[in-house]
Specification:
The complex is a heterotrimer. Chain B contains eight helices and 19 strands. By secondary structure, chain B is of the alpha+beta class. Chain B folds into three domains: 76 residues, Beta Barrel (OB fold (Dihydrolipoamide Acetyltransferase, E2P)), CATH 2.40.50.100; 93 residues, no CATH class; 198 residues, 2-Layer Sandwich (Chloramphenicol Acetyltransferase), CATH 3.30.559. In chain B, α6 packs across α8. Chain C contains eleven helices and seven strands. The chains are: A alpha/beta, B alpha+beta, C alpha/beta. Chains A and C meet through α3, α4 and α5 of A and α5 and α6 of C.
Chain lengths: 324, 404, 338
């Protein structure tokens, strides 16, 4: 067991997969000689050579398109978007080419597109977005959002081994803040399975990404006043663990949906609809959402702080829901 | 004029809430800026908090013992004197107004309109969430039983409430199927049931018993009967007891009072409720200003209210506002009773049946006298035994010395 | 309107040494005629009979481009065709019945009814299905070429596209990438002078699409897109360059779109005299004339070829027309690996 940061866990996962399967390669901007803007691919060029660690021009569409082409020929590219925000430049290739090949003509596109998403780092509107929903909304793609170092490693491996296009959104705020003991040896985390981070009897908080830690901090505080939060970490958005969502909702009958993404069109809407459709009779109170507001991510600290969901938000809403 | 909001301060960067432990002023008090106004307790520190402005503490919004987030408004300082209104109890989280009143109205013993048997309305449990409905269905619970008494906002029945109810019901030995018949309570029965337990929870009930020789009362009654009946009023013994009680209440005003928190509220008027048994329950119409009525008027009032009670023709204001009550289980043969106080009153007089008994007279002779047992249930929060007994002795003396 | 053309010298006077062998020339004619007749049957008959629904786009008059470039490809070479490249599908081995089933939305087509007209592909035939966002295939072709380099394979990719597609960002990113990485790609522009109703001078400020090649540091060549042997020669050179590891080439085939953009486009924005002019430059007629002249084929052999082609198409239509439609619930299948 070794203490590993979240970012290092991703690096290890990719590295181990490249050792394991010669078809796996990395492609993106500054991934080679620089080792990646966040050092996710550090050391890989030396180890695997420039045919497997490909530095590209600034061409997200080109990067994704090339990855698709290589994948159609049986390779397993891991394409990096330097900031997840830039994924919009490759939107068409992802949603219209990659996502639809298997459906249209049975051709698998086993690509991984990964990049750092999320705010809280004074990044401003173009370095802080959570773009997952554009892709959650596109059938044919898979979307994962790990919150722990363990899951980061396990999920990048699963994503690489998956035969469908997987979007892997790693949260930049967690990169170096999260440190865990990771087991040595190969392991994967299945795509499509959520995990209970904390059991509780009173209110379910369903969340993912960096917000998992917000929920856990709130849970510790609320425990003091006798309110037991159950925290479910989705880990995957497409496919997502419907059974786990319904199970926790049925158990506590009171649900808070928490995500850093903005409100309208955020994943909470999907979950709220699912719970209302399939667990209506188990509800003892309205389903509550805690999300960022519907604005771009602002820069100045008071603005960004207002924007991001906080522990106090979870506490306040939990108390309201508990008293209902 | 300008209002200043008094807020829960942030005592430390990582603090986001505080408990208001003590108000140092009450609503309506004048306050000077920087004068200590309230005390708080947080994770880091306990503090005395000075007033942010001078003026009058108009409203208290957060009660002692409540924990609220920093920057929550705990009170309002204005610069006019406002009569100290009873502050509405507010929880820190703004909630929609409760659909049903959490506490029953004090005058719930009689129903306002007892002939209205609208089962759905009065037995309605209010808003029911999906899981509560489902659990009720699964466990065969009639939600009307729990109506309005849940622990959720506004008395909402929560999932926990119904689960607890089911647990408790399981603990009680359940009769086998077919051995019981379940009948939902009528509105009046529900109201009476609620009032009775509420009264017992509220007052410190003590009952004291007096034996009274009714010889003179009976003689007076015989004498007055023809005259009263000519006036259209049947003369029972009840008016005598009511009259005696009223006179005693003048001399012992504490039995004509109410308790509000730590305050004794003395009622100026004496309004005596007379318990009347009706089909399905009981009702207590009130003789207003009984002290101003003579025997004739009392008798008339008692008869009239009794008749109209039994025929369900009482007006709503005739069953409100009582300050003292009288009940007469003796009419059914009871020797005596231990009545429950009719809230928000503090005493109730109970008449047993009048029976000829062998008693020992002054010269040790054994004689037959018409005797009655009287009981007074009183609220020991404000009435001590000695006072209650003195009150009763006063009544006894009046009755045993009745001048025809 | 000044339409750019390139006139290549007649075959007999050619100083070119790169002329395909006779057998290849016959094959070339066959596939061009097959393309022509198949598309004719689809557009002028089946579509107008309501047997093909939605949109139909044919490459009438541009048959030389797909056929000339693909005729000598190896089985393991890959083609990323566009909507005017029916010939590429036929050469790579997709049969008539399958193609017709695709157009008629049947279960037996390569997309099983999931997509329409030429939006089809087959990994086993090394045919990559394109999407409506034209230009997207350009980076994909670069990636395909990149994979050949990574694996040390000497396979090549042919990537045809129209003049309009070269305006898209993806086109530029893809060509740039292929150039930087020296991917074994032949980028083939079918410049038929119109993108829907947009004439060339509204599409770009450069005179030739091939002028863009130097911006990416790759060779650009202009050929007469209606001279199939010229197309063949230029393609062969580019393919050899790619196979040798020298990177991509941009070949611009000057031609003309003899129909509207699609079957439902009257194209009355095109001056009618242009149609007349280009009719005489029909690549099939030109090759037929040349083959008869050079003695490689007789007129009656050509007629026989035509008869056989029609008969094959008739038979394929007969079978495909009876093929089943997909089940409604098939809509839900194939989104992810099952």
């Amino acid at each position: 067991m070794a203490v590993t940061t979240y970012v290092e866990a991703i690096r290890q996962g990719i590295w181990e997969e490249m050792e394991r399967d010669e078809n796996v390669f990395v492609i993106g901007e500054d991934v080679g000689i620089y080792g990646g803007a966040f050092k996710v691919t550090d050391g890989m060029l030396e180890k695997f050579g420039e045919l497997r660690v490909v530095d590209t021009p600034i061409s997200e569409s080109g990067i994704v398109g090339a990855a698709i082409g290589a994948a159609l020929m049986g390779m397993r590219p891991v394409a990096e978007m330097q900031f997840a925000d830039f994924i919009s430049c490759g939107f068409d290739q992802i949603t219209n080419f990659a996502a639809k090949c298997r459906y249209r003509w049975g051709a698998p596109v086993p690509i991984v597109i990964r990049g750092p998403s999320g705010g809280g780092v004074h990044g401003g509107p173009f370095h802080s977005q959570n773009p997952e929903m554009y892709f959650v909304h596109t059938p044919g793609l898979k979307v994962v959002c790990p919150s722990t170092a363990y899951d980061a490693k396990g999920l990048i491996k699963s994503a690489i081994r998956d035969n469908d296009p997987v979007l892997y959104f790693e949260h930049k705020f967690l990169y170096r803040r999260i440190k865990e003991e990771l087991p040595s040896g190969d392991y994967t985390v299945p795509i499509g399975k959520a995990i209970i981070r904390r059991e509780g009897a009173d209110i379910s908080v369903i969340t993912y990404g960096a917000m998992v830690y917000i929920a856990m901090d709130a849970a510790k505080e609320l425990e003091k006043e006798g309110i037991g939060l159950e925290v479910l970490d989705l880990r995957s958005l497409v496919p997502y663990d419907r059974e786990a969502v319904l199970e926790t909702a049925k158990k506590t009958s009171k649900v808070i949906l928490l995500h850093e993404d903005t409100r309208i069109g955020g994943f909470a809407g999907e979950l709220a609809a699912l719970i209302s459709e399939e667990a209506f009779e188990y509800l003892d109170g309205p389903i509550r959402r805690i999300t960022a507001p519907d604005t771009p991510v602002p820069y100045s600290p008071p603005l960004e702080e207002f924007f991001l969901p906080k522990v106090s938000d979870v506490i306040r809403v939990a108390r309201e829901l508990y008293a209902y | 004029m300008a209002e200043t909001k008094v807020i829960m301060p942030q005592m430390g960067e990582s603090i986001f809430e505080g408990t208001l432990t003590r108000w140092l002023k009450k609503a309506g008090d004048a306050i000077k800026r920087d004068e200590p106004l309230f005390e708080i307790s947080t994770d880091k520190i306990d503090s005395e908090i000075p007033a942010p402005a001078s003026g009058v503490l108009q409203r208290i919004l957060v009660q002692e013992g409540q924990t609220v987030e920093i920057n929550t408004v705990v009170g309002i300082i204005g610069d006019e004197t406002v009569s100290a209104e009873k502050p509405p109890a507010q929880t820190p989280a703004a909630t929609p107004p409760p659909p049903t009143a959490a506490k029953p109205h004090p005058q719930t013993v009689p129903d306002r309109e007892p002939d209205r048997e609208k089962e759905e309305d009065e037995t309605s449990p209010g808003h029911v969430s999906p899981v509560v409905r489902k659990l009720a269905r699964e466990h065969g619970v009639d939600l009307a039983i729990l109506g309005g008494k849940g622990t959720g906002i506004g008395g909402r029945i929560t999932k926990n409430d119904i689960l607890h109810f089911v647990e408790e019901r399981k603990a009680a030995p359940a009769p086998a199927q077919g051995e019981v018949e379940r009948v939902p309570m009528s509105a009046m029965r529900k109201a009476i049931a609620e009032h009775m337990v509420m009264s017992q929870r509220t007052s410190a009930h003590v009952t004291t018993f007096f034996e009274v020789d009714c010889s003179r009362v009976m003689a007076a009654r015989e004498k007055l009967k023809p005259e009263f009946e000519r006036g259209g009023a049947k003369l029972t013994v009840t008016p005598f007891f009511v009259h005696a009680a009223v006179q005693a209440l003048k001399r012992f005003p504490i039995l004509n009072a109410s308790v509000e928190g730590n305050t004794i509220v003395y009622k100026k008027g004496i309004h005596v409720g007379i318990a009347v048994n009706i089909e399905g329950g009981l009702i207590v119409p009130v003789i207003r200003n009984a002290a101003e009525k003579n025997m004739q008027q009392l008798a008339q009032a008692i008869n009239d209210l009794g008749e109209r009670a039994r025929s369900r023709q009482l007006a709503p204001d005739e069953v409100q506002g009582g300050t003292f009550s009288v009940t007469n289980p003796g009419q059914f043969g009871a020797v005596i009773g231990t009545p429950i106080i009719n809230q928000p009153q503090v005493a109730i007089l109970c008449m047993g049946g009048i029976k000829k008994r062998a008693v020992v007279a002054e010269n040790d002779a054994i004689v037959a006298r018409p005797m009655i047992m009287l009981a007074l249930s009183f609220d020991h929060r404000i009435i001590d035994g000695a006072v209650a007994d003195q009150f009763m002795a006063d009544i006894q003396k009046q009755l045993e010395n009745w001048e025809s | 309107m000044n339409v750019k053309t390139v006139n290549s010298p007649p075959l007999a006077q050619a100083q070119r040494s790169d002329v395909p062998p006779a057998e290849t020339q016959i094959r070339i004619l066959y596939y061009m005629k097959l393309t022509r007749e198949l598309e004719d049957r689809i557009e002028r008959k089946l579509y107008r009979q309501g047997k093909v629904l939605g949109g139909v786009y044919v490459g009438r008059g541009q048959e030389a481009i797909a056929v000339g470039s693909c005729i000598d490809l190896r089985t393991d070479d890959v083609v990323c065709p566009s909507h005017r490249d029916m010939g590429a599908y036929l050469i790579k081995g997709m049969d008539l019945r399958t193609i017709l089933a695709q157009y008629m939305g049947r279960k037996t087509g390569p997309t099983k009814g999931k997509d329409a007209n030429l939006h089809m592909g087959s990994l086993s035939h090394n045919l990559i299905a394109f999407i409506s966002m034209l230009g997207d295939s350009v980076p994909v072709a670069a990636g395909i070429g990149l994979s050949f380099k990574m694996r040390g394979q000497d396979r090549v990719v042919i990537c045809p596209f129209g003049d309009g597609a070269t305006s898209r960002g993806d086109w530029h990113e893809g060509v740039n990438m292929a150039s930087v990485f020296k991917c074994p790609v032949v980028y083939l522009c079918n410049n038929n002078q119109y993108a829907y109703s947009t004439p060339l001078e509204r599409q770009m400020a450069v005179e030739n699409v091939a002028d863009r090649a130097s911006a990416y540091g790759i060779p650009g060549e202009i050929v007469d897109g209606n001279d199939v042997l010229a197309v063949w020669a230029a393609s062969r050179r580019a393919i050899e360059r790619a196979r040798a590891g020298d990177g991509p080439t941009l070949i611009e085939c000057k031609t003309f779109r003899m129909t509207g953009h699609s079957a439902h486009d009257k194209a009355d924005y095109v001056p009618s005299e242009l149609f007349e002019l280009w009719e005489e430059r029909c690549p099939i007629l030109r090759l037929e004339r040349d083959l008869v002249k050079s003695g490689i084929m007789t007129a009656s052999a050509i007629e026989e070829m035509q008869r056989q082609i029609i008969a094959d198409i008739d038979e394929a239509v007969r079978i495909a027309e009876q093929d089943p439609y997909p089940e409604p619930e098939d809509c839900l299948r194939g989104v992810y690996e099952e």
